[in-house]
Amino acid sequence: MNSEELKRQAAARALEYVQSGMKLGLGTGSTARHFVELLGARVRDGLEVIGVPTSETTRHDAIRCGIRLTTLDEVDRLDLTVDGADEIDPALNLIKGGGGALLREKIVAAASDRMIVIADDTKWVETLGRFPLPIEVIPFGLGATQRAIEKAFVACGVAGELVVRKAKDGHVFVTDGGHWIVDAHLGRIGDAPGLAQSLGLIPGVVEHGLFIGLASVAMLAGSQGIRVVERQ
């Protein structure tokens, strides 16, 4: 079974948590796309939900699938967000942002009563950091922001190269919010909550890809089936 089939299995399992009348956060990325497509099939069969997309790509996918959309200006809370992750640790802390939508993803997750993370089991790690940590930044003063990030790394006992993300065309990648992303190749993050707090204090850092305490449940699809892990 290939990774796309595993992702679709995890998405299908998360769909079991969706009930008619729910307000849903719709994640971004290849795994979340499977959830949006499966949700769209249920909507066409009569399920009544309304969604808040976490990116322009997801917005287009949801419209294509016939899912009614709203915004966080129009609803105060969401019942559930379903999204993927680049890494998941045993405390259900996450690294997200490989697709560049981390800011909107975190806003939507924080506005939700529950967040379900869906992934294939290769995303499960004992310690976060193997996947480069995305840090969304303001382009102005980038050098000063990078130096402040490096000081935060030293204080938190991590180190690694900072790389400004490029798009497929070779130009700097620009997020839906008009910002840039610096990917930090750290290898291992011993204290993810501490690093998250430090990065959040830096002027010029819009958001970072450490999602601490937001995920309620992880659904990990592997060759032996789906493992459901709940945050303690």
Helix proportion range: 25-40%
Net shape: globular
Which residues sit in consecutive blocks of at least 5 with pLDDT less than 50?
Answer: none
CATH topology of the largest domain: Rossmann fold
CATH architecture of the largest domain: 3-Layer(aba) Sandwich
Strand line-up of the largest beta sheet: 2-1-3-6-12-13
N-C termini distance: 31 Å
Number of helices: 6
**Mean pLDDT value:** 97
Question: What is the makeup of the main sheet?
Answer: 6 strands, mixed
Relative strand content = 15-25%
| SSE order | HEHEHEEEHEEHEEHEEEE
By CATH reckoning, the class of the largest domain would read Alpha Beta
User: What Rg is obtained from the alpha carbons, in whole angstroms?
Assistant: 17 Å
**How many strands?**
13
Domain module count: 2
Structural class: alpha/beta
Helices and strands in order:
Elements: H1 3-15, E1 23-26, H2 30-44, E2 50-53, H3 56-64, E3 80-83, E4 87-88, E5 94-95, H4 102-110, E6 115-120, E7 133-137, H5 142-155, E8 161-164, E9 180-185, H6 192-200, E10 205-208, E11 210-211, E12 217-222, E13 225-230
Parallel strand pairs: 1-2, 1-3, 3-6, 6-12
Antiparallel strand pairs: 4-5, 5-11, 7-9, 7-10, 8-9, 12-13
Helix pairs in contact: 1-2
Structure, described:
This protein is α/β, with parallel strands linked by helices and 232 residues long. It has 2 domains: 3-125 and 212-230, Rossmann fold, CATH 3.40.50; 133-202, ACT domain (Alpha-Beta Plaits), CATH 3.30.70.260. The chain has helices spanning 3-15, 30-44, 56-64, 102-110, 142-155, 192-200; strands at residues 23-26, 50-53, 80-83, 87-88, 94-95, 115-120, 133-137, 161-164, 180-185, 205-208, 210-211, 217-222, 225-230. It has a 6-stranded mixed β-sheet with strand order 2-1-3-6-12-13, with helices on both faces. A 4-stranded antiparallel β-sheet has the order 8-9-7-10, covered by helices on one side. Strands 4-5-11 form a 3-stranded antiparallel β-sheet, covered by helices on one side. Strand 4 (87-88) and strand 5 (94-95) form a beta hairpin. Helix 1 (3-15) crosses helix 2. The relative contact order is 0.18. The mean pLDDT is 97.
